[in-house]
Amino acid sequence: MGPAANDGxxxxxxxxxxxxxxxxxxxxxICGNRHQAEDLLQDALLKLALRWPAVRxxxxxxxxxxxxxxxxxxxxxxxxxxxxxxxxxEQAAHDRDGLLRLALHDALGQLPPRQRAVVVLRYFExxxxxxxxxxxxxxxxxxxxxxHAALRRLREVAPELxxxxxxxxxxxxxx
Length: 175
Hints:
mainly alpha
C-alpha cells in the first residue's frame, strides 16, 4: 500500500494512540459514567475519522473535545431524568485523596450539565475562558457566569474540597 492509498490513516492512528487516555478521562469527568464515556469517545473518534483529512492540520484534540461535550449535552437533553450514583462495592480505606476524589465526583454530579461542562473544561482540561466558550458554543460571559455559579454550588455541596493549609484551592471566586 503506497502513501496515496494510506490517506493519512497513520496520522489518525497515531493521534488516537497519543490522546485517547486524556480524552477518555475528560469524557468520564463530563458524564460521570465509565461505560457512557467510552461510548461517547468512540462516537467522537468515529466522527473525527470521517473528517480526518480536513481536521488533521488544525487541532484535532480540540475538535474531538467539542464533539465530546456537545454529544454529552445532547445525551442529557434526550435523557432528562435523574439517575442514582452508586459507590463502588469495595470501601476505600481512610485515604484522604480517595475521599476527596469521591466527594468531587459526587459534587460534580450535582451540577447542571452546562456548569459541569464548564468546570471540566476550565479546571480539568485547563482551557481558557475563550477556548471553553468556543467548545461549548457560548459567549465568554456565559462561561464566566456558569463557572461562578458552579464554584459557588461546589463550595456549598462539598466544603471538604477546600484546602486545609490555607493555600488557594481553585474554588475561590469573587462573591
